[in-house]
Prior knowledge:
Layout: E1 3-6, E2 17-24, E3 33-38, E4 45-46, H1 73-87, H2 98-104, E5 112-115, H3 121-128, E6 134-137, E7 145-148, E8 151-154, E9 165-171, H4 180-190, E10 191-202, H5 207-212, E11 226-227, H6 230-240, E12 243-249, H7 254-263, H8 268-271, H9 275-279, H10 282-296, E13 301-307
Parallel strand pairs: 5-6, 5-9, 6-8, 9-10
Antiparallel strand pairs: 1-2, 2-3, 3-4, 4-11, 7-8, 10-13, 12-13
Amino acid sequence: MPIEIQHKCGYCEYHDQFSNHHVKEMMFGTGQIFDYAECPKCKSLQQFKIPENLGEYYPKDYYSFKGLVKSSPLKNFLKKLRFDLFLFGFPLIKPFYGDWLKYTKMSKNSRIADVGCGNGQLLYELYASGFRNLEGYDPYIENKVNINSHLKLFNKSVFEMEGKYDLIMMHHAFEHMINFPKVMKKCFSLLNAGGYLLIRVPVTNAQVWKEEGVNWVQLDAPRHLSIPSTKGMMNLAGTAGFDTRKIEFDSTAFQFWGTELYKRGIPLKEGEPRLESIFGNKLKEFQKKALLYNKKGIGDQASFYFYKRA
C-alpha cells in the first residue's frame, strides 16, 4: 500500500495528501529507488525530490543522443515528394512525422522549434521534407551544431530561447523537465498568435499503469520527473492561456513488452536487443493491443495540440 505524503501538484495545484509509489531505475538496471507522488485529484504523477546528479542518468549512449543519420539528396527528394503527396490527401501515404504538421497547418517557412531535440533526427527529417526554418534545443547536447543553413541545434534550455515561433514541439521531453508549469508559460510567451504547442508525453490514463503499477515501463525513474493525466495536462495548459484543440493517443507495443521486461527483472538495455527471442509472436499481439487501447483512450501516451488564440 503506497504511503501518503504532503506536497502540491504542479498540474492542478491540489495540496493535501498524495499516495507515494516506490519505483526502480530499470533502463540500465541500477535498481535505485525513486519516489513518485500520485495526485488524488487529477491522477498525475511527479517526483518531489529530484536527484541532484540528474545528468548522470543521461549517459553518452542514451538513445536520443545517437549520431544523426543523414540521407542522400535523392532520398531527400523522395521524402519531400512523399510529404507533399500526403498533404494533397493521398490515403496510403504517410510520411515520417508528417501527420503532426498537417494538423497544425504549418507552411514550409514556418518557424519551428523542437525542445528536447536530442541529436536532431526529427528536425532533419522535416528538413528533408522541405521545411526551411528549424531549430532544436537541448541542454544535454554538448555543443551548438549548425547542420545546415536551415537547421541549427542549440545546447540551451527552453528558458534560454528567444524570438517568436509558429510551432513548438516536445516529443517525449516534457516529462523530463523540472519546472514544468513555468515551461508551459514560457512556451506560451514564445509562440505567435495562432501558433501551436505540440506535446507528446506518457499519460497516467494508461490501462497498463492501472494494472501493472510500478512496473510500468514509461515511469522511467528517475528521468521522467512527472507524468500527467490528460485532465492534469489540459488544466496546466489552460492555466498558461492555451486552448486544447486535440488529444490523440499514440501508444505503441512498447508499453507491453517494456513492462513485461521489468516484471521479469530484465533492464531495458539488456532486453530490447533480444525481443524476438524473449517474446516471439507476442510482439504482433502487443502491437494490435496498443492500437485497440489508443482507440479506447487508455493507451500509455498521447499527443496534445495546444493553441494560442489570435
